[in-house]
Specification:
Distance between the termini: 150 Å
Strand order of the largest sheet: 1-2-3-4
Helix content: 40-55%
Strand content: 15-25%
CATH topology of the largest domain: Rossmann fold
CATH superfamily of the largest domain: P-loop containing nucleotide triphosphate hydrolases
Number of helices: 2
CATH architecture of the largest domain: 3-Layer(aba) Sandwich
Largest sheet: 4 strands, antiparallel
CATH class of the largest domain: Alpha Beta
Length: about 180
């Protein structure tokens, strides 16, 4: 490995270690101390399903994720699924798919509730505008009645004043004839 490194040759070393101790991240020949990048391929068995995972144990001089990602082998090839953290763990396989579907359904329901709420508010706004229009019409009618009553009162006052003025004039003229 030192020779490969000195000559700038990329070397991929694989290992098949049979151990249940997933935290045992060392190699028998201590090759891990020489390697620049170490990828760990594992599997988890959950609810009767085996799911493959990949994580970066170390990668000297490069930025890298510390998250365990699901390694998906499909007819489209090999790819890493987006990390789906749930609670204190990471969901993989069917559990991830089920949770993604549940989350999508919840988003859909939330959007439906929001749309229903928007329609209710629009209906209430329409009703308030209709009531406001009715009240404005009623206000205009009452204002017109008030103005008409005020005009009638002025005419009556004018008639009373005119009548008094006529009586006073007649009395004044009658008093001058005697």
């Amino acid at each position: 490995m030192d020779l490969f490194k000195a000559r700038g040759i990329t070397c991929v070393v694989t290992s098949l270690i049979e151990t249940d101790a997933r935290t045992d991240e060392t190699s028998a020949a201590q090759v891990s101390t020489i390697a620049d990048t170490w990828l760990a391929l594992n599997y988890q068995i959950h609810d009767g399903e085996r799911n493959r995972s990949m994580s970066v144990v170390k990668s000297r001089g490069t930025a890298h994720s510390n998250q365990v990602r699901e390694l998906v082998l499909s007819s489209d090839g090999i790819h890493l699924a987006d990390v789906y953290a749930f609670g204190s763990g990471v969901l993989m396989g069917t559990a991830r798919l089920n949770q993604e579907h549940a989350a999508a359904r919840e988003r859909e329901l939330a959007q439906q509730r929001q749309e229903q709420r928007r329609r209710q508010l629009e209906q209430q706004l329409h009703e308030l505008r209709a009531r406001t229009s009715e009240l404005e019409d009623e206000l205009a009618g009452e204002s017109a009645l008030l103005a008409s009553d005020q005009d009638q009162d002025r005419r009556q006052q004018d008639e009373i004043l005119h009548s008094r003025h006529g009586i006073a004039k007649a009395e004044h003229q009658g008093g001058q004839k005697k």
